[in-house]
Structure formats: C-alpha cells, structure tokens
Design a protein that fits this description.
By secondary structure, this protein is an alpha+beta fold. Helices cover 36% and strands 39% of the residues. The protein is built from 4 helices and 6 strands, in the order αααββαββββ.
C-alpha cells in the first residue's frame, strides 16, 4: 500500500510540475513567434481560439485553423518579424503585454501593440489586440 501511495504521489508531482503558468505559456508563445515556429506557436492555442482587434471590435480569426492561416501568412511574408516585449502585467489567467513589432510584412516601421492574452487549460483561447503606430 505504501508503494502504491508513493507511486501516486510521484506521478501527481510530476504532472503538476509540468504545468506551466499562464505567464510562462504567453512567454513561450512570444519566443516561438520571434522564431517564426508556426507549429510550436500553434500548439499553444486552443481549438476555439479567437483573435480580436479591440479598436473596432472586429474578429480577426475564429478557431485554430483561422489563427494558423493568419500567422502562417504573416510568418511567410515577414522574414525579419520580431516582437520586443516592453512591459508585462499578469492577473490570474490574463496576461497583458506591451510590445513593439518590427519587420511586419517587410515594412521598416515599428508597430506598438498592447495584447491581452487569456489562457485556459494551458492554452491561449483569446487574444485582444490594441494597435498604435510608433513615432
């Protein structure tokens, strides 16, 4: 009985320690974005993921396949794409990043973004983007 209990505790501890915090998931997503690793990047999104442009309320993508199409196109057309994290706030499962994006679609201008990521069950299920141009 003690052996079974010890095995159970070991398995539970291993599973628990493998779980990432919402902040770690968003950081991993940012790293994969900067490496343009589409497969790894998409592994962090839920099947029902939604991308929203906050300024006009427009839904940019609904569902993992639409999100993948959007980022596949972006990665292919942006060989120098890079996001620099300027600031991050964390509240539970919500991560708010202030980012500067360069190399988007081959353009030299930087884009300033606020991105709110919402994480559920170890996956990003909603991204809300607020865009501003850098001067």
């Amino acid at each position: 009985m003690k052996k079974i209990l010890a095995t159970f505790i070991l398995i539970f501890t291993s599973i628990y320690s493998m779980a990432q915090s919402p902040e770690e998931i968003v950081q991993q997503q940012l790293d994969l974005y900067n490496n343009k690793d589409l497969q790894g990047f998409m592994s962090l999104f839920s099947e029902d993921a939604t991308l929203i442009n906050q300024s006009d309320g427009k839904v940019l993508a609904t569902g993992k396949s639409e999100v993948e199409k959007l980022y596949s196109n972006l990665f292919q057309k942006s060989p120098n794409l890079y996001s620099e994290l300027k600031n991050r706030m964390v509240l539970g499962n919500t991560i708010i990043d202030h980012e500067n994006i360069t190399g988007r679609l081959g353009k030299p201008e930087a884009i300033e973004l606020i991105v709110m990521y919402e994480v559920r069950s170890q996956q990003i299920f909603r991204c809300t983007v607020i865009r501003g141009e850098l001067k």
